[in-house]
Amino acid sequence: MPDDLADNSNERCYPPWFSREAFFKVRSNKIKIQGVGEILMERSRRAKHIRITVRPFKGVRVAVPFGVSLARAETFARSKAEWMKKHLCKMHQLEQAHKTFSENYIKIDKATAKKKLVNRLNELSEQHGLPYNRVFIRNQKTRWGSCSAKDNISLNCKLANLPEELIDYIMLHELVHTRVKNHSKKFWQELNKFVGNARKLDKRLNEYRMLLID
Ligand SMILES: [Zn+2]
Predict the structure, then answer these.
(1) Is-above-0.70 flag for pTM?
(2) How many angstroms is it from 175 CA to the middle of ligand 1?
(3) Please, which residues bridge with residue 32 across strands?
(4) Cα separation of the two ends of the chain
(5) Domains of the chain with CATH codes
(6) Sequential pLDDT tens for the chain (214 residues)
(7) Distance from the CA of 165 to the center of ligand 1, in angstroms?
């Protein structure tokens, strides 16, 4: 941030109720917290309270509502250093998992991934008597797969890098959607017939969610 913010001579030129911060329209600020590193303090119109978020590859951000001074937000942020450290540690693990995944991902080219996924989908479809209409291999950022009203199945090409058990789980999940379109009790019961413990696998899949971003 500009050094002139610390220059008190500027402040005296303006009425006392007019803060230096408001005058210079400070929208963001970076501060360093020992053991945490650099954090970004940013004005936010949406924030109702001071809010700290730790995001993968982006680090710590403190959203500061209008009406709260950056100085106050900084004091608050510093008091939450331990919380930040804990969450950063978790985030670093996810980042590492993501890096490992990305490196392996390069090894499987899209064409090979497509072949592998389509073959396995057809195997499972025939084996369990769950026919589908068409299959699309896409590069989605938010989901591993989906099944349309017309029983067209879309699979994420990144799926090819998941453990076999999870690949099968997702494929069977989508194949069962050809019978049950929602996530009702009936759906999970049906899916359990093919995968054993669907909820457990669904939870395990959550550990890989991070890998979708790319
Ligand atoms: Zn589903």
Answers:
(1) no
(2) 9
(3) 38
(4) 32
(5) 3-99 (no CATH), 108-212 (3.30.2010.10)
(6) 222 222 232 333 333 445 566 656 678 889 999 989 999 999 988 888 899 998 888 889 999 988 888 888 999 999 999 999 999 988 888 888 777 766 665 567 888 889 999 999 999 999 999 999 999 998 887 889 999 999 999 999 889 888 899 999 999 999 999 999 999 999 999 999 999 899 899 888 887 777 776 5
(7) 17
